[in-house]
Design a protein that fits this description.
Blueprint (H helix, E strand, L loop, with lengths): L9 E8 L2 H30 L3 E6 L2 E6 L2 H17 L10 E8 L2 E3 L2 E3 L1 H11 L6 E4 H7 L8 E8 L8 E7 L32 H12 L3 E5 L6 H11 L8 E5 L9 H8 L10 H9 L5 E5 L5 H14 L4 E6 L9 E4 L14 H4 L3 H13 L10 H10 L4 H9 L6 H6 L4 H4 L14 H9 L4 H9 L9 H8 L9 H10 L4 E5 L2 E5 L2 H13 L3 H22 L5 H10 L1 H13 L4 H18 L2 H14 L5 H17 L3 H18 L2 H17 L3 H18 L2 H17 L3 H18 L2 H17 L3 H18 L2 H17 L3 H18 L2 H17 L3 H18 L2 H17 L3 H18 L2 H17 L3 H18 L5 H18 L1 H13 L2 H9 L4
Parallel strand pairs: 4-7, 10-13, 10-14, 11-12, 12-13
Antiparallel strand pairs: 1-3, 1-4, 2-3, 5-6, 7-9, 8-9, 15-16
Length: 1000
Amino acid sequence: MAKHLPTGTVSFLFTDIQGSTELLHRLGDQRYGEVLLEHQRLLREAFAREEGAEVDTQGDAFFVAFPRAWNAVAAAITAQQALASHPWPEGVAVRVRMGIHTGEPTLVGDHYVGLDVHRAARIAATGYGGQVLFSERTHAMAQVRLPGGVEVRDLGEHRLKDLHRPEHIYQLAIPGLPADFPPLKSLEVLVTNLPALQLTSFVGREREMAEIKAQLAATHLLTLLGPGGTGKTRLALEVGSGLLEQFPKGVWLVELAPLSDPDLIIQTVATVFNVREAPGRPLLDSLIDYLKPRELLLVLDNCEHLIEASARLAGALLRGCPQLRILATSREPLGVAGEATYRVPPLSRPDPAKRIAADQLGEFEAARLFVERAILGNPKFGVTDANAPAVAHVVSQLDGIPLAIELAAARIKVLSVEQIAARLDDRFRLLTGGARTGLPHHQTLRATIDWSHDLLSEPERVLFRRFSVFAGGFSLEAAEAVGAGGEIDEMDVLDLVARLVDRSLLITEEVTGDVRYRMLETIRAYSQEKVTAAGEEAAVRERHVRWYVDLVEEAEPALQGPEQVTWLDRLELEHDNLRAALEWCRDAGGDKEAGVRLAGALHRFWARRGYLSEGREWLETAITRCPDVSPPARAQALYGAALLAFDQGDYARAQARAEESLSLHRALGDDLGAALSLNVLGSVARNRGEYGLALKLLEEGEAVSRQGGHTWALAEALNSIGLTARRQRDHERARRLFEEGLALWRQLGDKWGLAGVLGHIGVVARFTGDYERARALHEESLALRRELGDRRNIAAALSSLGTVALLQGDYGQARSLFEESLVLCRELGDKLNVAAALGNLGVVATHQGEYDRAAELYEESLVLYQELGDRLNIANAHFYLGMLALRLGSDGRAASEYRNALKMFAAQGDKLGLADSLAGLGRVAAARGRPAEAARFLGAAEALREAIGTPLPPADRAEYDRTVADVRARLGDEEHVRAWAAGRALPLEAVLQEAMRPEA
């Protein structure tokens, strides 16, 4: 939820407790926690009294924004008085330092950006517990409203870290409170050679700084690792400046990037401390003698190109100087005994797959950095809901790498953010123009990666460029299969991978006990240029394709057994690589046969994990572009395309592909493939209401499966025949078939099939009125779906549970379950089930008397079905709108909607839908006072249900019986019997003709 933060001219107040770490050690966790909470309560009360809005709170620190300068000053005074007068435990003194500055920051979401924020924080950092400091601007705006007795002391100008100009600082002298403090801890006082001025602000990294400080407290050598541009140097400087108080002899920076001669390292370090070489004595010994008694922090920056010399120096200094600590930055570890390492992660960034609004961007460090630097280059730049997705795309595509983001933001001077996003495919040409005064390898994105690449050995360079064909990560086995060849032996790959990891060109990730490797996309783009330039791309990509064809063909049968979850998860991990392999086969003249085999073997994965549209596109492309592949590969792809088309309700395409698949499988003598194709064809016929044809096809598939001993195909056939029986309201037969299938799914250990059949049995239980059993079965099915990661069917199981709750009259629970299903379907982009969930919520709203909301939900559902061209569900939506209109007493609207439904059910040949719609028109006629017409329509509906063997569901029986009783009472028994019989006797065409007449 967005915070209500002030805009325009804003005054910032930063606070923290001086000596909080010492206080924690003295009091222990529990007592310190109590003191901290009390301190927070007192400060929050003071802030709230003066309209303060908390921007951030971390540990003992507050960051608060006030609409006016005098509010911030008054809040600080009240807070200090409250802290001083509070009865703290004996021996406890809570001393809080405070700093205030006023400016005009930019608000991005829930975060302020701009130098005004940093200036306020730096002012606070120079003070001491109990002291309130503020800037010249705050002083000018607040002095007219200072409380009586409060004095202001002028402390003069002070240089603050990272800020261009000195700040004139003032201090409050509050009556009754201490007013005399040591000199401010500005850069004139602290011992350091850290640069006093950084030309740009430092964004984010609070968690990383805290972790680095904690790790540095436990070790004497900590090396920050990461590829070029990840901000190691800037982070080290920020950490160093934050530790100035802890090192009495200072924090000292040694910049190694300008050096090319390793013999100059010792001289460079000695120069920083003004240590001179003594005649006849090694300079290193003199340096050690100087540093030995001093407690200080040495920052060795950019060690990677002089790694051995840096390691020798660090090792010698640490052995001879017990109070020395070293913070190094490098693209690989120094390899010194006792060294700890910290891999600097990219900045946090949005998920590019999710739509993001302007007020959400501030949650992500990468986006805040882009916005700050963009405003620096173009003060007119602003974030809007329209350009926020482009900002998210840019920072995500650039992997959250600070250098790349800063270079991209600099282009805001001449390009819109949308134009920058569109040009990232050529990022190395786009991202140039870094500061001329910066290091050469930081002036363009290409230069910073060149710097790393040039330090590699030739075998490392070969493997580095070959790994560019991987997308989204890869295993060691894949690395060996794809990376080996020519001068690279498979046995050498592990060591070379380890060296690329050390050099920060590969990232390691542990997934379910296995280590995987990946490149940041920016580094991968660079390595793709290298593999193309080396003329190796085609050969390496063909090895990549072969590896993944072998993988998916091993996975395919396993997706039907007890290891299916493991294999589904593995294929999910490899999905980006599978896409890359498919793209190569499709677009670049790769092995077309391999592409068809790959797509055909993946159909079940795509179906299980809900990638229906994507899977269909790959399969249809493979089928249409590669007609001359081997018959087995084509038959498999055709079957997969048929299955996914059926899952999406595209019955015409499903039938066409399944018929061709059946023909090919029969020609090949593949009875398993034939049985599965028959199952798709039978299921299509069932969903079209052609139950006789459906049973013929499905029972043929069942017979083939039994004869061939194909257990999995037999279980599928039993499911499909059971669904057909259930459609015909033959619940007993459906239950027997499902339970026979249940035993087979358990035998196979197939959790996906098991989850499905449990849901089917649950629906039968629901239709027969056994709601408790239905609930238990759907809950068991849902648990399995969650285990499988089958999000599409998780949504379906939630919907089934919602329907049970609805039938039990628990409308609140039903609504909650349908809404959870709707959210999941929207996330998946599953419009078909979004429409279904909306319709279900419409039913709940109708039951709860929220008729306007119900109408909106039904109509939104109808629009989606119309977009999808799903005629059966369009008819259902019209039917539900008719029911609602009738309930509202709008019999004209009800008649119109029922006729719309009737027309579409007739076009689909759905006799059950026709029966329901005729019954609906019977209720309309009854409501209009035309009982004879009502009896004819109800009689015709009953005859139609009997003809297809689908009796009225128990849940609908009560309302139906009330309508029939009302009609009989109006007509009298004798007339009712005649009208009812006339309706039953009418041919279907005559009934439809009468029903469709407007005057009916």
